[in-house]
Amino acid sequence: KIRSDPEILVSIQEFSQLLQGKGVDISRGQMPSMLQMAKLASDKEINAKITNINTLLNRAGITLDSQTIQKFMNWAN
User: What is the pLDDT along the chain (77 residues), one digit of tens a residue?
Assistant: First the structure.
């Protein structure tokens, strides 16, 4: 479902670019450090993008869970 929805794909790509701009490169398959995660959790821009992605996923009938997030990370590689 995700791969067939261009709006979701663009939003995920934008999120990946946003993370890179914040110093977190998920394209290598590495999770951010605990310190990076804490900083990202309090970042308004990151939270807004996650909320947007979650809204798009919900509209498509997809639940944002750890399995879905893992798929995103695999696609980034």
Answer: 677 889 998 998 899 899 999 988 877 777 788 899 899 999 999 999 999 999 999 999 988 887 777 776 666 55
Cα distance between residue 44 and residue 58, in whole Å: 21
Q: Please give the biggest Cα pair distance in the chain.
A: 34
DSSP, collapsed to helix, strand or coil, labels residue 23 as: coil
Domain map of the chain by residue range?
Answer: 6-76
For the entire predicted model, the pTM comes to: 0.77
**Residue that the structure tokens 């791969």 belong to:** 3
Whether 5 contacts 57, CB under 8 Å:
no
